[in-house]
Design a protein that fits this description.
alpha+beta; Alpha-Beta Plaits; 3 helices; 4 strands; globular; YCII
Length: 112
């Protein structure tokens, strides 16, 4: 008898950048954004964005410190695999060893 598929769960991912990764992040950002599109379409990522050192004044560049992502998967291991395959991890932007993958349950979610 086949077992029922596992239910999908939400995971809040806090993904710090390595120190000094700003230039690398900007270089691979277009590839990262393209790679995220199919994950959003499939529902594996339902929210995400950059974490900043602070909100810049008008005309100042963004100073990144990492990323936040809300992922939907069967397990934390599945989320970790998704993160390991991202260009930000593969190119040395995200410090995955210090990432937090936190079980999460949305109460409210609104599209931009």
């Amino acid at each position: 008898m086949a077992s029922a598929p596992s239910a999908k769960k939400e995971f809040l991912c806090i993904l710090p950048d390595f120190p000094g990764a700003q230039e690398k992040r900007l270089a691979v950002r277009p590839e990262h954004l393209e790679g995220v599109k199919p994950l959003v379409s499939s529902g594996e990522i339902v929210a995400g964005g950059a974490m900043l050192e602070s909100h810049p004044a008008e005309g100042e560049p963004l100073k990144f410190k990492g990323s936040m992502m809300l992922a939907v998967a069967e397990s934390e291991a599945d989320v970790r695999k998704l993160l390991e395959n991202d260009i930000y991890t593969r190119s040395g932007v995200w410090d995955l060893a210090n990432a937090q993958i936190i079980p999460f349950k949305s109460a409210v979610r609104k599209e931009l």
